Task: structure prediction
Amino acid sequence: MTTAAKSESHIHEEHEDLREHLMLDPKPRGEMNAMVMEAMHTTSWKFKLTAAFLGLVVAVCLFGAWGYLILEGMGVAGVNRPSYWGIFLVNTVFWIGISHAGTFVSALLRVFKAEFRRPFTRAAELMTTFGLVQAGLSIFFHMGRVWLSYWLFPYPNERGLWPNFHSPLSWDFLAINTYLLASTMYLFLPLIPDLAMARDRSTGWRKTLYRILSLGFRGTEGEWAHLRTAMNIFAFAILPVMFSVHTIVSWDFAAATRPGWSSTIFGPYFVVGALHSGIAAVAMVLVVVRATMKNMKYFIRKEHFDALGKLMLIVSMGWAYFFFNDYMVQWYGGDKWTDALLHFHEAGPLGWMWMLMLVFNVAVPWLTLWSRKIRTTPGLLFAIGLLINVGMWFERYVIIPISLTINRMPFSWREYKPGVEIFLGIGTLAFFILLYMIASKVIPLVPVWEVQEGQMAHSLRKFGKARVPTVSEIE
Amino acid sequence: MSEDSKSKWGMVIDEDLCTGCQACVTACAMENNIPFVGEQDAAYGRGMHWIQVQRFWEGEALEVSTSFQPVMCQQCGSAPCEPVCPVYASVHSEAQQVNSQIYNRCVGTRYCANNCPYQMRVFNWRDYELPDPLNNQLNPSVTVRRRGIMEKCTFCIQRIISAEDRAKSEGRDVTDGEVVPACAQACPADAITFGRLDDPESRVSKLAKSGRGVQLLEELGTHPKVTYLKGGSR
Amino acid sequence: MNETKTLLALFQDVDPAAEAIDKLREMGLDDGQMNVISGIPVTERMLGRPTQWSNVPRLALGGAVGGFLLGLFLAVGTPSLYPIHVGGQPIIPIPPSVVVVFEMTMLGMLVSTFIGVFLDSRFPSYSPKEYVPEISDGRIAVFFECPADKEEKFTKAMKSLGAESVKPAEAQKL
Result:
């Protein structure tokens, strides 16, 4: 080949490579709108069957089992003395962890101007809202007299009683509700322009729904200015809320006197753990969305899985760091109760869970996610994400019921065997998936205006002989 | 700021006298309307006895000795169960210097039970009802509790209040030994002594200050109101 | 008396829209007589328009102060009004109060930011307004008031700068 021909084919390859990136492969906005609307409108029989099945699971395993639990009492669950908290709390912490992923993608990545977040911020933010719903349900499940749960809400009453703000559970109540409200509002604000787009392209009940929800948005300068200002405030402000929520949840355990629980590192340990399971869950959801919804292969590409895979690896290292901090200091201290607890974790009847936790949370990501090939293979990323989530669920199981077994009164050492919690846990998982599926057909899953904004901001610039992608700051 | 400087009611249990007969457990159950949970729940650690006789084996084969330790709520001066209840169901009684569990406020989050280092709080896992005619033995001075509520030893607060009321109506103070909780009343070995820790002349104060006195998990700083006398071997 | 007509010119891209706005100014309109509606946020800088003022930050700050006061009431006020002794902690414990005050401040700030968008943009508003659905397909619409007799002149000027269409702007139900 002549030099000229070589460099020409180089440029051709480069072009093709660059066009792999969503931001450098623009389509007319009208076409992208149509693609997103089509993805929303198309429901296959497989979708309907899955939704019907999940609906059945929710009816039986969630609402049915919950009714049974309320009527019979906590006795049908597996909790006892000393494991007064079990899988309900494990699931609460797990779902709050999942919910942190959404805020991480839509807020943290926005603040750091990571352009790859654009097509999936809404898909991630939906996980936050629906994850928090499951966490809230799990909290309700664990209460002995749930019909009086409104007493945790501060309101003037004739009993002369306000909630006890000494209690981490009261902080939980305030923090989780703040987070739920904030993330729902943050989900809604960037959704308004897309609802306006959907309004313009719909008929029938959909048009009425979008007309009402889009509030009369047109896209005037004023409307965009207020929206953008609000979104910037939200992006910055919701980050401390996100960090505080899981820290406060960790204080449910760290503020207690139990061996293995009153550890000062629980705050950041839990936050990083939440990101670990959350980002893995976002990757899982995106793999499924891309595989099952029309036109999503245009919006969600290898680059997004690549970025998420790298994040999963880094956060896994962070989790290992905090786990080791917690473990090393407890092991070194030599307190006889903590010693007994650590030994029970590793070598007790559920020692396999502790081992698998380390394998799934650390070994699996560290052995696989360094490879770009693996990161960009959706099926493999899904499997790795699933193992990470299982590992993180095991971590919370180790921390809650297994740690409660070993306390300072050996006469009260007794194992925990789950009961109806298993059904309710499956019910919350089915409910999460069902809510997500319904949402994906009711609201546009991809924030098209943000994708177009990003595509407008990206261009190719000549840098010497190379053509490099450049991002302009058009905000 | 702890309340160890403030004391009122307290208990001393002489482990060297305790025979492990569980009369205290039975008496407490009858006095305080403690339900029977059934074989299955009891085996799973859901027994609801407010006082538990903990049995410890010491020594090697053929030279084994047992020691018995009746444990109930220690009515801590600085109780870990109190700050963690979100609805103020576990509060410190300033008047009686004990920990009060207020059944009507409890919503069943069970944080207090997790935080009790003595693991002496019990939960109503189900509605346990005494079938007719056993319900005739229920003590009318003590309420019955429904499912979803936490409970624990109250130092027989109903007996304390009724003694104080009686003394007040007679225009005198409560005398030492007038208030006898059910467990102390039933103990055949007189191992349990109850009275006013703030009165240096009371039997319980003198026993508590004796050289054999120890407190459970003292290093945690909970300031329990129960002192155990240990030291003689059997 | 001169009648005015409201025209709506649709542009595909930022550059022609910016030129059109310059041209409109040349032809005697001032900024108050022009409005820009777009499918993605086009900053005022790009079109040479005066910066929009938003009340949202001030409302957010006000909400933060309100939330702070609510948090203080809950953490400090309620135990002062109804003191209950628990666990050897002071009646008003400082570290838990910090947590409560922080959460309520953030809640106040975020809720008032959200409400601020509604107030400032006068949402929800379902009355008929000037709009064309092509805007959500990424077009930039410039609509302006011009004297009725000069309608053709303005239309020609917009078309010559690349407007896809120039129509009378009718207020329609969205």
Chain B touches chain C through 18 residues (CB under 8 Å). The mean pLDDT of chain B is 93.
